[in-house]
Amino acid sequence: MKRCLYILLGLVIGGSVLAENKTKLIVGITINQFYPEWLSIYREDLSDGGFKRLLKAGKEVTADYNYLYSQTGVDQTTIYTGLLPSSHGIVAHDWLERLSGKRENNTESKEHWEIGTEDSLRGHAPEHLQALSLGCMMKMNNAFSKVYSVGMNPEEVVLSGGNCADLALWFNEKSGKWVSSQYYADSLPAWVREYNDRLVSDFFVKRGWMPLAEEQDNSLLLKLKNKIGLGSSFYYDIAQAKRKFNTYRVLKATPYANSMVTDLAMAVIEETGLGKDNGVDLLALNYLSLDYMNRDFGLDAKEFQDMVMRLDKDMANLLEFLDTKVGRENYTIVLTFCEARELLPEDLEHMKIQGGYFSVFKAVALLKSYLNLIYGEGDWVMDYDAGQIYLNRELIEKNKLELREVQDRVAEFMAEFEGVGNVYTAYALARNSLAEGKGLLVQNSFSQKKSGDVLFTLLPAWVTELKDAEDNYFRYSKRNKVPVYLYGAGIKGELRKECRMTDILPTFCFLMGMPALYTLTGNSLFAD
Protein backbone atom coordinates (compact mmCIF):
# COMPACT_ATOMS: atom_id res chain seq x y z
CA MET A 1 0.00 0.00 0.00
CA LYS A 2 1.33 3.40 -0.92
CA ARG A 3 2.79 5.60 1.84
CA CYS A 4 3.23 8.79 -0.17
CA LEU A 5 0.58 11.49 -0.64
CA TYR A 6 2.20 12.69 -3.81
CA ILE A 7 -0.04 15.61 -4.64
CA LEU A 8 -0.07 16.91 -1.07
CA LEU A 9 3.70 16.67 -0.86
CA GLY A 10 3.98 18.55 -4.12
CA LEU A 11 1.92 21.39 -2.67
CA VAL A 12 3.90 21.41 0.57
CA ILE A 13 7.28 21.64 -1.08
CA GLY A 14 6.01 24.20 -3.54
CA GLY A 15 8.38 22.84 -6.17
CA SER A 16 7.96 23.66 -9.82
CA VAL A 17 9.89 22.67 -12.86
CA LEU A 18 12.85 25.00 -13.22
CA ALA A 19 12.98 24.71 -16.95
CA GLU A 20 11.56 22.71 -19.80
CA ASN A 21 12.35 19.03 -19.20
CA LYS A 22 15.54 17.93 -20.90
CA THR A 23 14.59 14.27 -20.70
CA LYS A 24 11.38 12.29 -20.29
CA LEU A 25 12.86 9.12 -18.85
CA ILE A 26 15.86 8.49 -16.63
CA VAL A 27 17.14 4.91 -16.80
CA GLY A 28 19.45 4.35 -13.83
CA ILE A 29 21.55 1.19 -14.18
CA THR A 30 23.74 -0.45 -11.54
CA ILE A 31 25.82 -3.57 -12.18
CA ASN A 32 26.63 -5.55 -9.06
CA GLN A 33 30.08 -7.11 -8.46
CA PHE A 34 31.32 -6.10 -11.91
CA TYR A 35 35.00 -5.46 -12.65
CA PRO A 36 34.80 -2.13 -14.56
CA GLU A 37 38.10 -2.77 -16.34
CA TRP A 38 36.39 -5.54 -18.32
CA LEU A 39 34.90 -2.83 -20.55
CA SER A 40 38.43 -1.88 -21.59
CA ILE A 41 39.80 -5.43 -21.70
CA TYR A 42 37.00 -6.63 -24.00
CA ARG A 43 36.36 -3.33 -25.78
CA GLU A 44 37.21 -4.70 -29.22
CA ASP A 45 34.74 -7.54 -28.76
CA LEU A 46 31.85 -5.28 -27.76
CA SER A 47 29.08 -4.54 -30.24
CA ASP A 48 28.58 -1.03 -31.58
CA GLY A 49 25.07 -0.89 -30.17
CA GLY A 50 25.77 -1.85 -26.55
CA PHE A 51 28.40 -0.67 -24.08
CA LYS A 52 30.52 0.75 -26.90
CA ARG A 53 27.67 3.11 -27.78
CA LEU A 54 27.67 4.45 -24.23
CA LEU A 55 31.46 4.71 -24.18
CA LYS A 56 31.71 6.53 -27.52
CA ALA A 57 28.68 8.82 -27.47
CA GLY A 58 28.37 9.35 -23.73
CA LYS A 59 30.44 10.88 -20.95
CA GLU A 60 32.57 9.08 -18.37
CA VAL A 61 33.14 10.34 -14.84
CA THR A 62 34.99 8.69 -11.94
CA ALA A 63 32.82 8.70 -8.84
CA ASP A 64 33.89 8.08 -5.25
CA TYR A 65 31.36 6.46 -2.93
CA ASN A 66 33.38 8.02 -0.10
CA TYR A 67 32.75 5.17 2.34
CA LEU A 68 34.33 1.80 2.93
CA TYR A 69 31.74 -0.95 3.31
CA SER A 70 30.17 -1.28 -0.14
CA GLN A 71 27.34 -3.84 -0.02
CA THR A 72 24.12 -4.88 -1.74
CA GLY A 73 21.54 -2.15 -1.28
CA VAL A 74 23.92 0.30 0.41
CA ASP A 75 25.34 1.64 -2.85
CA GLN A 76 21.94 1.90 -4.54
CA THR A 77 20.64 3.90 -1.59
CA THR A 78 23.56 6.32 -1.81
CA ILE A 79 23.03 6.84 -5.55
CA TYR A 80 19.30 7.47 -5.29
CA THR A 81 19.28 9.55 -2.08
CA GLY A 82 22.43 11.59 -2.67
CA LEU A 83 23.49 10.93 0.94
CA LEU A 84 26.09 8.83 2.73
CA PRO A 85 25.14 5.68 4.70
CA SER A 86 25.67 7.56 7.97
CA SER A 87 22.77 9.81 6.89
CA HIS A 88 20.43 7.65 4.80
CA GLY A 89 20.40 4.80 7.34
CA ILE A 90 21.23 1.80 5.14
CA VAL A 91 24.67 1.08 6.56
CA ALA A 92 24.95 -2.60 5.58
CA HIS A 93 23.18 -5.60 4.08
CA ASP A 94 22.20 -6.57 7.66
CA TRP A 95 22.88 -5.17 11.10
CA LEU A 96 22.22 -6.16 14.70
CA GLU A 97 19.05 -4.81 16.27
CA ARG A 98 20.29 -4.40 19.83
CA LEU A 99 16.88 -4.43 21.53
CA SER A 100 15.86 -7.78 20.02
CA GLY A 101 19.38 -9.18 19.70
CA LYS A 102 18.56 -10.29 16.14
CA ARG A 103 19.91 -9.36 12.74
CA GLU A 104 17.86 -6.92 10.71
CA ASN A 105 17.91 -7.13 6.91
CA ASN A 106 18.01 -3.74 5.22
CA THR A 107 14.66 -4.24 3.43
CA GLU A 108 12.88 -7.30 4.81
CA SER A 109 9.50 -6.23 6.18
CA LYS A 110 7.56 -7.54 9.17
CA GLU A 111 4.34 -5.87 8.01
CA HIS A 112 4.19 -6.29 4.23
CA TRP A 113 3.99 -9.71 2.62
CA GLU A 114 5.21 -10.72 -0.80
CA ILE A 115 2.68 -10.59 -3.63
CA GLY A 116 2.77 -12.69 -6.78
CA THR A 117 3.56 -15.95 -5.02
CA GLU A 118 1.36 -18.60 -3.42
CA ASP A 119 3.60 -18.90 -0.38
CA SER A 120 3.21 -16.55 2.58
CA LEU A 121 6.63 -14.99 2.53
CA ARG A 122 7.81 -11.81 4.14
CA GLY A 123 7.96 -9.07 1.60
CA HIS A 124 10.44 -6.24 1.32
CA ALA A 125 9.93 -2.52 1.82
CA PRO A 126 12.12 0.59 2.29
CA GLU A 127 11.10 0.91 5.94
CA HIS A 128 14.66 1.52 7.17
CA LEU A 129 15.33 4.23 4.61
CA GLN A 130 15.73 7.52 6.48
CA ALA A 131 15.89 9.89 3.51
CA LEU A 132 13.93 11.00 0.47
CA SER A 133 15.06 9.26 -2.69
CA LEU A 134 14.91 10.39 -6.29
CA GLY A 135 11.50 8.81 -6.88
CA CYS A 136 9.94 10.84 -4.06
CA MET A 137 11.59 14.05 -5.26
CA MET A 138 10.18 13.45 -8.74
CA LYS A 139 6.66 12.91 -7.44
CA MET A 140 6.92 15.95 -5.17
CA ASN A 141 7.79 17.98 -8.24
CA ASN A 142 5.23 16.32 -10.52
CA ALA A 143 2.58 13.98 -9.10
CA PHE A 144 2.25 12.25 -12.48
CA SER A 145 5.85 11.03 -12.64
CA LYS A 146 6.15 7.25 -12.63
CA VAL A 147 8.83 5.28 -10.78
CA TYR A 148 9.64 1.60 -11.37
CA SER A 149 12.51 -0.59 -10.22
CA VAL A 150 13.54 -4.02 -11.51
CA GLY A 151 16.25 -6.52 -10.57
CA MET A 152 16.92 -10.03 -9.32
CA ASN A 153 17.60 -9.21 -5.65
CA PRO A 154 14.95 -7.45 -3.54
CA GLU A 155 17.34 -5.29 -1.50
CA GLU A 156 18.80 -3.42 -4.47
CA VAL A 157 15.42 -3.16 -6.22
CA VAL A 158 13.56 -1.78 -3.20
CA LEU A 159 16.25 0.71 -2.29
CA SER A 160 16.67 1.90 -5.90
CA GLY A 161 12.99 2.70 -6.16
CA GLY A 162 12.75 4.23 -2.69
CA ASN A 163 9.67 4.96 -0.63
CA CYS A 164 7.57 6.34 -3.49
CA ALA A 165 8.06 3.77 -6.25
CA ASP A 166 4.93 2.75 -8.12
CA LEU A 167 6.24 -0.80 -8.18
CA ALA A 168 9.43 -2.71 -7.38
CA LEU A 169 9.79 -6.14 -9.01
CA TRP A 170 12.28 -8.83 -8.05
CA PHE A 171 12.84 -12.51 -8.76
CA ASN A 172 11.28 -15.19 -6.56
CA GLU A 173 13.80 -18.03 -6.33
CA LYS A 174 11.20 -20.69 -5.51
CA SER A 175 8.63 -20.01 -8.21
CA GLY A 176 10.84 -18.46 -10.89
CA LYS A 177 8.39 -15.58 -11.19
CA TRP A 178 8.57 -11.82 -10.65
CA VAL A 179 7.08 -10.65 -7.37
CA SER A 180 6.64 -7.51 -5.31
CA SER A 181 5.35 -6.48 -1.88
CA GLN A 182 2.10 -5.31 -0.32
CA TYR A 183 3.96 -2.08 0.39
CA TYR A 184 3.38 -1.13 -3.24
CA ALA A 185 0.06 -2.79 -4.10
CA ASP A 186 -2.45 -5.35 -2.87
CA SER A 187 -1.75 -7.55 -5.88
CA LEU A 188 0.40 -7.59 -8.99
CA PRO A 189 -0.94 -5.68 -12.00
CA ALA A 190 -2.65 -7.88 -14.60
CA TRP A 191 0.14 -7.37 -17.11
CA VAL A 192 2.76 -8.67 -14.64
CA ARG A 193 0.64 -11.73 -13.92
CA GLU A 194 0.30 -12.39 -17.64
CA TYR A 195 4.03 -11.89 -18.06
CA ASN A 196 4.70 -14.40 -15.28
CA ASP A 197 2.47 -16.96 -16.99
CA ARG A 198 5.07 -17.15 -19.74
CA LEU A 199 7.57 -18.40 -17.12
CA VAL A 200 10.61 -17.15 -19.03
CA SER A 201 12.86 -18.61 -16.35
CA ASP A 202 12.02 -22.17 -17.45
CA PHE A 203 13.19 -21.32 -20.96
CA PHE A 204 16.62 -20.33 -19.65
CA VAL A 205 16.83 -23.29 -17.26
CA LYS A 206 16.34 -25.73 -20.15
CA ARG A 207 18.75 -23.81 -22.36
CA GLY A 208 21.93 -24.48 -20.41
CA TRP A 209 24.86 -22.06 -20.37
CA MET A 210 27.63 -22.20 -22.94
CA PRO A 211 29.68 -19.43 -24.60
CA LEU A 212 27.60 -17.09 -26.72
CA ALA A 213 29.80 -17.73 -29.74
CA GLU A 214 29.09 -21.48 -29.55
CA GLU A 215 25.33 -21.40 -29.03
CA GLN A 216 24.69 -22.36 -32.62
CA ASP A 217 26.79 -25.50 -32.26
CA ASN A 218 25.57 -28.85 -30.99
CA SER A 219 25.05 -28.22 -27.28
CA LEU A 220 24.82 -31.95 -26.51
CA LEU A 221 28.19 -32.56 -28.11
CA LEU A 222 29.68 -29.59 -26.24
CA LYS A 223 28.24 -30.92 -22.98
CA LEU A 224 29.68 -34.39 -23.60
CA LYS A 225 33.14 -33.05 -24.47
CA ASN A 226 33.31 -31.02 -21.27
CA LYS A 227 32.14 -33.94 -19.15
CA ILE A 228 34.94 -36.20 -20.38
CA GLY A 229 37.55 -33.44 -20.23
CA LEU A 230 37.96 -32.84 -23.97
CA GLY A 231 36.20 -29.50 -24.11
CA SER A 232 38.16 -26.29 -24.54
CA SER A 233 35.19 -24.24 -23.44
CA PHE A 234 32.43 -24.72 -20.87
CA TYR A 235 28.88 -25.96 -20.58
CA TYR A 236 26.66 -25.76 -17.49
CA ASP A 237 23.55 -27.91 -17.22
CA ILE A 238 21.23 -25.48 -15.44
CA ALA A 239 18.29 -27.89 -15.45
CA GLN A 240 20.36 -30.46 -13.58
CA ALA A 241 21.47 -27.85 -11.04
CA LYS A 242 17.86 -26.75 -10.51
CA ARG A 243 16.76 -30.33 -9.88
CA LYS A 244 19.61 -30.88 -7.44
CA PHE A 245 19.03 -27.72 -5.36
CA ASN A 246 15.29 -27.32 -6.10
CA THR A 247 15.53 -23.57 -6.68
CA TYR A 248 15.55 -21.09 -9.53
CA ARG A 249 18.33 -19.31 -7.67
CA VAL A 250 20.75 -21.11 -9.97
CA LEU A 251 19.80 -18.64 -12.73
CA LYS A 252 21.33 -15.79 -10.73
CA ALA A 253 24.74 -17.37 -11.24
CA THR A 254 24.39 -17.13 -15.04
CA PRO A 255 24.27 -14.23 -17.52
CA TYR A 256 20.64 -15.13 -18.18
CA ALA A 257 19.66 -13.23 -15.04
CA ASN A 258 20.53 -10.00 -16.86
CA SER A 259 18.62 -11.04 -19.97
CA MET A 260 15.55 -11.62 -17.79
CA VAL A 261 15.91 -8.19 -16.17
CA THR A 262 16.25 -6.57 -19.60
CA ASP A 263 13.20 -8.38 -20.96
CA LEU A 264 11.08 -7.36 -17.98
CA ALA A 265 12.37 -3.77 -18.20
CA MET A 266 11.15 -3.55 -21.78
CA ALA A 267 7.78 -4.93 -20.70
CA VAL A 268 7.55 -2.26 -17.96
CA ILE A 269 8.24 0.49 -20.51
CA GLU A 270 5.69 -0.97 -22.93
CA GLU A 271 2.92 -1.56 -20.38
CA THR A 272 3.26 1.59 -18.26
CA GLY A 273 4.10 4.13 -20.95
CA LEU A 274 7.28 5.34 -19.29
CA GLY A 275 8.66 8.41 -21.05
CA LYS A 276 5.46 9.01 -22.97
CA ASP A 277 3.78 11.90 -21.13
CA ASN A 278 4.83 15.31 -19.84
CA GLY A 279 6.10 14.02 -16.51
CA VAL A 280 9.65 12.75 -16.12
CA ASP A 281 9.78 9.05 -15.25
CA LEU A 282 12.38 6.80 -13.63
CA LEU A 283 13.29 3.20 -14.37
CA ALA A 284 15.93 1.75 -12.03
CA LEU A 285 17.58 -1.42 -13.35
CA ASN A 286 19.87 -3.65 -11.32
CA TYR A 287 22.15 -6.15 -13.07
CA LEU A 288 24.38 -8.93 -11.68
CA SER A 289 27.83 -10.36 -12.41
CA LEU A 290 27.15 -14.04 -11.69
CA ASP A 291 25.92 -13.12 -8.18
CA TYR A 292 26.95 -15.70 -5.56
CA MET A 293 29.31 -17.49 -8.00
CA ASN A 294 31.34 -14.31 -8.59
CA ARG A 295 34.34 -15.46 -6.56
CA ASP A 296 34.45 -18.87 -8.21
CA PHE A 297 36.17 -17.56 -11.33
CA GLY A 298 39.36 -15.63 -12.00
CA LEU A 299 39.17 -12.24 -13.70
CA ASP A 300 40.15 -13.69 -17.09
CA ALA A 301 37.81 -16.70 -16.89
CA LYS A 302 35.82 -17.53 -20.01
CA GLU A 303 32.66 -17.42 -17.90
CA PHE A 304 33.25 -13.77 -17.05
CA GLN A 305 34.08 -12.91 -20.65
CA ASP A 306 30.84 -14.52 -21.77
CA MET A 307 28.92 -12.66 -19.08
CA VAL A 308 30.28 -9.35 -20.38
CA MET A 309 29.45 -10.26 -24.00
CA ARG A 310 25.91 -11.27 -23.10
CA LEU A 311 25.35 -8.20 -20.95
CA ASP A 312 26.60 -6.11 -23.87
CA LYS A 313 23.98 -7.78 -26.06
CA ASP A 314 21.30 -7.07 -23.45
CA MET A 315 22.40 -3.44 -23.33
CA ALA A 316 22.17 -3.17 -27.12
CA ASN A 317 18.65 -4.64 -27.06
CA LEU A 318 17.60 -2.21 -24.34
CA LEU A 319 18.99 0.84 -26.13
CA GLU A 320 17.37 -0.16 -29.43
CA PHE A 321 14.04 -0.65 -27.64
CA LEU A 322 14.33 2.77 -25.97
CA ASP A 323 15.11 4.37 -29.33
CA THR A 324 11.92 2.90 -30.76
CA LYS A 325 9.48 3.23 -27.87
CA VAL A 326 10.66 6.40 -26.11
CA GLY A 327 12.73 8.17 -28.73
CA ARG A 328 16.49 8.66 -28.76
CA GLU A 329 16.11 12.32 -27.77
CA ASN A 330 13.79 11.58 -24.84
CA TYR A 331 15.74 9.32 -22.48
CA THR A 332 18.94 9.44 -20.46
CA ILE A 333 21.08 6.50 -19.28
CA VAL A 334 23.18 6.75 -16.11
CA LEU A 335 25.18 3.56 -15.59
CA THR A 336 27.56 2.71 -12.75
CA PHE A 337 28.77 -0.15 -10.56
CA CYS A 338 27.95 -1.22 -7.01
CA GLU A 339 29.90 -3.52 -4.68
CA ALA A 340 32.47 -3.50 -7.49
CA ARG A 341 34.71 -6.55 -7.71
CA GLU A 342 38.11 -6.28 -6.10
CA LEU A 343 41.21 -8.21 -7.09
CA LEU A 344 41.17 -11.46 -5.12
CA PRO A 345 44.32 -12.99 -3.58
CA GLU A 346 44.58 -15.52 -6.41
CA ASP A 347 44.40 -12.65 -8.95
CA LEU A 348 47.19 -10.80 -7.13
CA GLU A 349 49.31 -13.92 -6.78
CA HIS A 350 50.11 -13.80 -10.51
CA MET A 351 51.73 -10.40 -9.87
CA LYS A 352 53.65 -11.73 -6.85
CA ILE A 353 51.61 -9.64 -4.42
CA GLN A 354 50.97 -11.35 -1.11
CA GLY A 355 47.43 -11.15 0.19
CA GLY A 356 44.89 -13.50 1.66
CA TYR A 357 41.40 -14.21 2.94
CA PHE A 358 40.71 -12.82 6.40
CA SER A 359 38.58 -15.18 8.49
CA VAL A 360 36.53 -13.11 10.89
CA PHE A 361 35.11 -16.41 12.18
CA LYS A 362 38.50 -17.57 13.47
CA ALA A 363 39.38 -14.09 14.70
CA VAL A 364 36.19 -13.77 16.75
CA ALA A 365 36.62 -17.30 18.17
CA LEU A 366 40.02 -16.22 19.53
CA LEU A 367 38.58 -12.89 20.67
CA LYS A 368 35.88 -14.65 22.70
CA SER A 369 38.48 -16.81 24.44
CA TYR A 370 40.58 -13.74 25.16
CA LEU A 371 37.64 -11.82 26.67
CA ASN A 372 36.73 -14.82 28.81
CA LEU A 373 40.26 -14.82 30.22
CA ILE A 374 40.17 -11.08 30.93
CA TYR A 375 36.62 -10.60 32.18
CA GLY A 376 35.41 -14.10 33.05
CA GLU A 377 33.11 -16.52 31.27
CA GLY A 378 30.30 -14.87 29.31
CA ASP A 379 28.85 -14.14 25.89
CA TRP A 380 30.86 -10.95 25.43
CA VAL A 381 30.36 -10.84 21.64
CA MET A 382 26.74 -10.63 20.52
CA ASP A 383 27.36 -10.69 16.77
CA TYR A 384 29.86 -9.80 14.07
CA ASP A 385 30.12 -9.39 10.33
CA ALA A 386 32.79 -8.74 7.71
CA GLY A 387 33.98 -5.48 9.20
CA GLN A 388 32.54 -4.97 12.66
CA ILE A 389 31.98 -6.56 16.05
CA TYR A 390 28.96 -6.07 18.32
CA LEU A 391 29.64 -6.39 22.05
CA ASN A 392 27.18 -7.48 24.71
CA ARG A 393 26.57 -4.08 26.30
CA GLU A 394 24.08 -5.45 28.80
CA LEU A 395 26.66 -7.92 30.11
CA ILE A 396 29.33 -5.20 30.19
CA GLU A 397 27.05 -2.95 32.23
CA LYS A 398 26.04 -5.82 34.52
CA ASN A 399 29.72 -6.42 35.31
CA LYS A 400 30.20 -2.68 35.93
CA LEU A 401 32.76 -2.35 33.17
CA GLU A 402 33.40 0.74 31.10
CA LEU A 403 32.15 0.18 27.53
CA ARG A 404 34.89 2.42 26.18
CA GLU A 405 37.59 0.39 27.93
CA VAL A 406 36.23 -2.91 26.56
CA GLN A 407 36.00 -1.44 23.05
CA ASP A 408 39.61 -0.29 23.24
CA ARG A 409 40.79 -3.70 24.43
CA VAL A 410 38.95 -5.46 21.60
CA ALA A 411 40.35 -2.97 19.08
CA GLU A 412 43.90 -3.62 20.27
CA PHE A 413 43.35 -7.37 20.01
CA MET A 414 41.90 -7.20 16.47
CA ALA A 415 44.75 -4.98 15.25
CA GLU A 416 47.19 -7.85 15.81
CA PHE A 417 45.67 -10.11 13.13
CA GLU A 418 47.39 -10.48 9.80
CA GLY A 419 45.44 -8.72 7.08
CA VAL A 420 43.82 -6.14 9.38
CA GLY A 421 44.68 -2.56 8.49
CA ASN A 422 43.04 -0.15 10.90
CA VAL A 423 40.64 -0.63 13.81
CA TYR A 424 38.19 1.96 15.17
CA THR A 425 35.89 1.99 18.16
CA ALA A 426 32.32 3.24 18.09
CA TYR A 427 33.20 5.57 20.96
CA ALA A 428 35.91 7.28 18.91
CA LEU A 429 33.83 7.45 15.72
CA ALA A 430 30.86 8.99 17.53
CA ARG A 431 32.92 11.68 19.27
CA ASN A 432 35.53 12.61 16.71
CA SER A 433 35.39 13.96 13.19
CA LEU A 434 37.95 12.18 11.03
CA ALA A 435 39.06 14.35 8.14
CA GLU A 436 40.80 11.92 5.78
CA GLY A 437 42.00 8.41 5.04
CA LYS A 438 40.35 5.11 5.94
CA GLY A 439 38.98 6.59 9.15
CA LEU A 440 36.83 9.04 7.17
CA LEU A 441 35.53 6.24 4.94
CA VAL A 442 34.60 4.16 7.99
CA GLN A 443 32.96 7.13 9.68
CA ASN A 444 30.83 7.80 6.58
CA SER A 445 29.44 4.27 6.93
CA PHE A 446 28.94 4.52 10.68
CA SER A 447 25.64 4.70 12.58
CA GLN A 448 25.53 4.92 16.37
CA LYS A 449 22.30 2.93 16.37
CA LYS A 450 23.14 0.23 13.83
CA SER A 451 26.91 -0.18 13.63
CA GLY A 452 29.10 -2.36 15.80
CA ASP A 453 31.25 -1.42 18.79
CA VAL A 454 34.49 -2.09 16.92
CA LEU A 455 34.98 -1.59 13.18
CA PHE A 456 38.06 -2.71 11.28
CA THR A 457 39.48 -2.40 7.77
CA LEU A 458 41.52 -4.89 5.78
CA LEU A 459 44.72 -4.24 3.89
CA PRO A 460 44.31 -3.69 0.11
CA ALA A 461 45.41 -7.22 -0.88
CA TRP A 462 43.09 -8.91 1.64
CA VAL A 463 39.40 -9.75 1.34
CA THR A 464 36.87 -11.29 3.68
CA GLU A 465 36.35 -15.02 3.86
CA LEU A 466 32.73 -16.08 3.32
CA LYS A 467 30.77 -18.77 5.13
CA ASP A 468 29.72 -20.17 1.75
CA ALA A 469 29.25 -19.03 -1.84
CA GLU A 470 25.76 -17.65 -1.11
CA ASP A 471 26.87 -15.58 1.88
CA ASN A 472 25.83 -11.92 1.52
CA TYR A 473 26.22 -10.86 5.14
CA PHE A 474 30.02 -11.19 5.24
CA ARG A 475 30.53 -9.96 1.67
CA TYR A 476 31.49 -6.38 0.94
CA SER A 477 33.83 -4.44 -1.33
CA LYS A 478 36.51 -1.95 -0.30
CA ARG A 479 36.56 -0.53 -3.80
CA ASN A 480 34.99 2.91 -3.46
CA LYS A 481 35.95 4.55 -6.80
CA VAL A 482 34.09 3.44 -9.94
CA PRO A 483 33.22 4.88 -13.36
CA VAL A 484 29.85 6.47 -14.12
CA TYR A 485 28.65 6.60 -17.73
CA LEU A 486 26.08 9.19 -18.80
CA TYR A 487 24.41 9.01 -22.20
CA GLY A 488 21.39 10.49 -23.97
CA ALA A 489 19.17 13.53 -23.61
CA GLY A 490 20.77 16.44 -21.76
CA ILE A 491 24.30 14.99 -21.76
CA LYS A 492 26.06 17.89 -23.43
CA GLY A 493 29.01 20.13 -22.69
CA GLU A 494 31.78 19.54 -20.20
CA LEU A 495 31.38 17.47 -17.05
CA ARG A 496 33.71 17.19 -14.12
CA LYS A 497 36.06 14.22 -14.52
CA GLU A 498 35.84 13.22 -10.87
CA CYS A 499 33.03 13.50 -8.35
CA ARG A 500 31.46 11.98 -5.26
CA MET A 501 28.65 9.49 -5.78
CA THR A 502 26.42 11.90 -3.83
CA ASP A 503 26.75 14.25 -6.85
CA ILE A 504 24.79 11.87 -9.09
CA LEU A 505 21.37 12.68 -7.66
CA PRO A 506 21.77 16.48 -8.12
CA THR A 507 22.80 15.61 -11.69
CA PHE A 508 19.57 13.62 -12.11
CA CYS A 509 17.66 16.67 -10.89
CA PHE A 510 19.46 18.93 -13.37
CA LEU A 511 18.65 16.58 -16.25
CA MET A 512 15.00 16.55 -15.23
CA GLY A 513 14.83 20.31 -14.89
CA MET A 514 13.69 20.05 -11.28
CA PRO A 515 14.99 21.62 -8.07
CA ALA A 516 17.42 19.66 -5.94
CA LEU A 517 16.08 19.06 -2.45
CA TYR A 518 17.66 21.02 0.41
CA THR A 519 18.86 17.81 2.10
CA LEU A 520 21.38 17.05 -0.65
CA THR A 521 25.05 17.67 -0.02
CA GLY A 522 26.37 17.06 -3.56
CA ASN A 523 26.50 19.22 -6.65
CA SER A 524 25.49 18.57 -10.26
CA LEU A 525 28.22 17.40 -12.61
CA PHE A 526 27.21 20.10 -15.06
CA ALA A 527 28.80 23.53 -14.84
CA ASP A 528 26.47 26.40 -14.07
What does this structure look like?
The chain has 528 residues and is of the alpha/beta class. It has 20 helices and 19 strands. It has helices spanning 6-13, 38-41, 51-57, 74-81, 85-88, 134-141, 154-161, 190-197, 200-207, 219-227, 238-245, 256-272, 302-325, 345-349, 360-375, 393-398, 403-414, 426-431, 437-444, 504-512, and strands at 25-32, 59-64, 94-97, 102-105, 108-115, 122-124, 147-151, 167-171, 178-181, 281-288, 331-338, 356-358, 381-384, 388-391, 420-425, 454-458, 462-464, 481-488, 498-500. The strands form 4 sheets. The protein has an 11-stranded mixed sheet, with helices on both faces. Strand 13 (381-384) and strand 14 (388-391) form a beta hairpin. Mean pLDDT is 91; it is low at 1-21.
Summary keywords:
disordered N terminus; 528 residues; alpha/beta; 11-stranded mixed β-sheet; single chain
Q: For the residues shown, what is the average pLDDT?
A: 91
Largest sheet: 11 strands, mixed
Low-confidence stretches: 1-21
Number of helices: 20
Q: What structural category do the secondary elements indicate?
A: alpha/beta
What helical percentage do the residues reach?
A: 25-40%
How many β strands by DSSP?
19
Radius of gyration: 23 Å
Question: Span between N and C termini?
Answer: 40 Å
- What is the spatial order of strands in the main beta sheet? 6-5-9-8-7-10-1-11-18-2-19
Shape: globular
Q: Strand content of the residues, in percent?
A: 15-25%
